Amino acid sequence: MYVFGNFDMFSSGSELWKNVVNEAKEANELGSRLLLGCHMHQNITEIQTPEDFKNKSPTGGCRLPCKKKLNCGHICKMLCHNKDVEHKEYKCTEKCTKIFQPCNHPCPDMCHQECQKCLVQTLIQLSCGHTQLVHCYQTHTEEDIAEIQCLQPCPKILACGHQCSELYVGLLGL
Questions:
Q1: Which of 38, 89, 108, 158 has its CB surrounded by the most CB atoms within 10 Å?
Q2: pTM for the full model?
């Protein structure tokens, strides 16, 4: 049991506390400080006041960086901590290091996020001859490219004299 406070005051107001204090004195277990051992860094933190817990051991460990290697390969950037020591709930704050295939563009997300599709803008030439900006993931296979519709307006002038209001894709017979 650890108690912070004025034992003389505790003892004067309660027979129970008087007995607790006397037993602690007899066992030489009464002191003005508590020594906390860090399980990660093997160092000792001295606690003398309740505020010392917040100042010297804010996350339950010592004040050194955790630096434990995470499953993603990055290191934990938190201060030494005694909660979630296996880092199962920890969300890595580094940039993702994965590379999209087959384009070799880097994933722009944070490491703890699930990688989305490659959204790099790529200029491609369509079968109609027009060029168009599309997301890279739309160009990974011939089937992907075949699904892209040209967004250029139809250049035809209709028999009535008006400009065709359809997209150029209609001319391709797609």
A1: 38
A2: 0.57
Specify whether the CB–CB gap between 70 and 76 falls below 8 A: yes
Q: Please write the tens of the pLDDT for every residue from 128-167.
A: 888 899 999 999 888 888 888 888 888 888 889 888 888 7
Sign of the alpha-carbon torsion through 9, 12, 16, 20: positive
Q: Give the pLDDT of residue 169.
A: 61
Q: Are 118 and 105 in contact (CB under 8 A)?
A: yes
- Other Cβ atoms closer than 10 A to 126: 19
What stretches of 56-157 adopt beta strand conformation (E)? Answer: 60-65, 79-81, 121-125, 131-135
C-alpha span between 45 and 101 (Å, rounded): 49
Dihedral angle over CA of 162, 166, 168, 170, nearest 10: -120
Distance of CA 137 to the CA centre of its chain: 25
Task: For residue 162, give both structure tokens.
Answer: 């008006």
DSSP element (H, E) containing 9: helix 7-13
Q: Phi first, then psi: what are they for 64, rounded to 5°?
A: -80, 155
What is the band of 64 on the pLDDT scale with cuts at 50, 70, 90? very high
